[in-house]
Amino acid sequence: MAAAIELPRRLASTGRALALHRFPEPGRDHYRSGVRDLARAVAEPTLLGRGLRPWDRGHDARLAARLMAQDEGGGFRLPADVPRGPVAAALGRTLAELREEAVPPERLEAVAAAAVGSPEDGARLSTLARLYRRFEEERAGRVADPATVLEAAVPALEDADWLAGTEVLIVEDLELHARERAFLAALARRVPVRRLARVRPPSLEPSSFAPWAEAHGIPEVSEEKTILAPLTPKAAPPALTRLRTALFEPSGGAEVRDGSVELVSAPGEAAESRAIARRLLRAAAEGVPFEEMGVILARADRYAPLFTDLFGRLGIPHQLHPSLPLRFGRCARSLLLLFRCRGLARTAVMEFLTFAPVPFEKMLPDQAWPSRWDALSRDARIVSGLDRWIVGLRAHAEAEREGAERPGTPERRERRLRRARDAESLLEVVQTLSAELDALSGVAPWMEWSERLRGVCDRWIRPPVRPRPDGTEEENREREAVLRVVDELASLEAIDAEVPWGQVEEVIEARFERKRLPLEPATGGAVHIGALDAMAGLPFRVVALPGLVEGGYPGVIRPDPFLLDPEREATSSPIVPPRGPRRRTGPAQLALFADKAPPVPPVAPAGEPARLPSLFFVAAASALAGEPLTAARLERWVSDDEPRSADDAIDAGERDRLRVREGGKAAADTIAAGSLFFRQSRFAVQGRWKNRLSPWDGLLAELPAEVRKRLDPVSAEWPASASRLAVFSACGFQYLLKNVLGLEPALEPEERRRLEPLEKGDVFHRVAERFLRERRERGELPVVYTDDLEMAEEALDHLVAGSPPRFTVLWERARAQVRDLLLSWLAREAAAAERSTPAHFEVSFGLGLAPSGGEPHRPEPLQIDLGDGRALKVAGKIDRIDRRGDGRLVLRDYKTGRAPRDEGGIFKGGKQLQVPFYILAAASLFPDTTVAEAFLDYVDGGRLVSVDPDWVRSPGFRDLLRGLVEAIGQGIFVQEPSACPWCDYTQVCGPRALLEARLRYKRADPLVQRVLKLRDLG
Ligand code: SF4
Known about the structure:
alpha/beta
């Protein structure tokens, strides 16, 4: 408990010299009852040598699981789909509680025999009684569990000479099991035991610890008469006194408002923690030391991470009691992530490799670069499975090595070789990981699992070291805690001979949740944050209780599914009188010590329904008001969390918002002057909602001349390509992201279910070209129909060489679609063979090198006069040129996918500029021949969409081209929301509806108008 650590420290800080033997010695990784620790110290000499096995709560669940599985009566009647693990955990708790309450098995059997409920109730109780008897047999006299320790401690008190002259002081009301009460009563007979006087509401008195203690020789003593006298708090202010004495009592008396208790409402847990941080900082400014402030968490699992994160960011020193679950630590998380890698899903593997402190230097000869592996594995289209990793990474490495051999700069060669080495390194790591996961499967004894996991930790989790202030390093204790969990698995051997891996994983996860991160000692004063139990007994000057909402605190009470309350009452132990109903008095008791206690109920996080304040919260307000409060009247007592002034803000963001709210534009200007980030964000918001195009939505008007030169397709170093200009026509902003900024979409590879449209087009292009080219070389043209598609099969196999499809049925269907496409294309080619004969393929212009196969080509780019004294250089490749019988040319550009319905408008806005460029290129490549026809060949539907060669030479085409080029050169990149559904950059731009709304504002801008008008050209 926090009190065991903090009270002696505070006492020492008052100048009292202390020789301290502290009970309880805080557990290494969790908080324990002081009574049990004292009992263990007393009983240890008598228990040593009895050969008892260690025992913890995890053992209860395992034993319960085994007993359920082995029960001769068939166990509880559970539906088949109910997971057994959680049921066993709940049963383990029930059985352990019965044992700690010293209930003999025959008593439970008698309760089961006398069951008067339904037959199901009788069967449940009989099963429980059977399991409990077995549970007792397995444990009694064999293990050093709490019941054994407490039982042994009672007689051992007589021989505990070291207790002579001792005085025991209980600083907080206790909630004890029967065996603990028996030990405490015996202790009170052996040495003086006293308890600190507490004021509590009269209605709580009968069920509190006090009557039992009074009856067993544990009198009350005021703090001034104990060793804690120097810590005695001053008299509490009236409001706090009212809470101490009247909480949950019938309301009465005049209202008390003295500022010592504050009821605060906040919209959500994060806002609650900020409200509390603000009040703690205010108190600190008034001189309250941090160590005299407490945050009591009724739901520690939910709030502890929030507070540690916020306090860490704000630099508020704090100490958690107990610390966060072990699973929050890097080593524990790494181990759990490693387990998630089963199946080798790419995302899971990459998360593990980039997060875990893996000692790669022991695995790889070269330095490892996990940061590069993510993109690499994505490029290799790896989804999951070792086979895919092997094939994909090998193919990737091979392709990179081949690429490195091609002509190019030394830097390019080195880059490709480096990528190949990266792929090989990653493959080695993944293969090792796969072997490791294989070893973590099957069935084995606990001892063996423990040893195997030890090995896994040694190989995959580097002993983390932390630098000390003096420059040396110390080992981080979190890894030790993880290894302790792994080692402790061996002790489960006493329960199960062998278990499958799945159960081992469940046990580890449960223990990482239950065990705590090693508590780092606070170097100075720190705010204490902790769970109710852990903080009991520690006085504070300022205390906060977040989470007082309906269902939050008090939480939902769930009955024990195995033993209902009346049945439990019937089993009460005869060892000591039955105690009153269990209750939690933590917050009320702790509030007694506080100068201020602001319970804070969250109102409603954004998007969630409003939550009601809890009974505790309403009771506190009613006690202060002196009357029962309705919801409407409660509001008078609740304040919202608002910074009082900029100085009251807890961080820069909050301070800036406050300044802007109070000071308007002038304040915003001042903030912007001092913060680049704020300034830019403000400009962005303002610019995007202006009625003119701005730099924040695609206008790059003010660029240095050098950059502008590179942007302008006319003056750029490289010729423009038709497909690039087509991107601009679809969406100018996409052109900016893709072609100017070079932003690459990072798409997560998926299991292949079909051929992507681009892949389908690529396969078709390659097969069609090769088919026609080979026939041309052999003099076998014009085309004659054939159903020999061997080269199509080859192309498809090549396509998936690095990523073999898993869904073979779906893949076969995709293959069949490509075959059908090729067969129908061949049929059309054969039917039209008389009109023209294929002559040239992949005829390039402006690409410098000659294409393979000795096709005609033009090394220099095409120069198109824009009519303003400038010329646009264009490069490209004509898919195919046919010759008619009269020698004239027919040009075509293959398209896969459906042809657009509106063929009249297909060239509007320049969306398909390839064919017009081809017409011009062909005219320069074959000056003595005219182009008779040019079209887009939509091979899926067998539809041809023609372009009039005369239009390409008309002023209309030139105007369109000039408009496009000028818009790009002048940096006008307008967003086009209608193109969003097919765009990979939606994450950059945001929702389409928002873009449309902003575009409506800007439509009247002449620059936007200029781009929109281009669509009507052509
Ligand atoms: S998401 Fe829409 S607006 Fe943004 S680049 Fe893509 S198409 Fe253009």
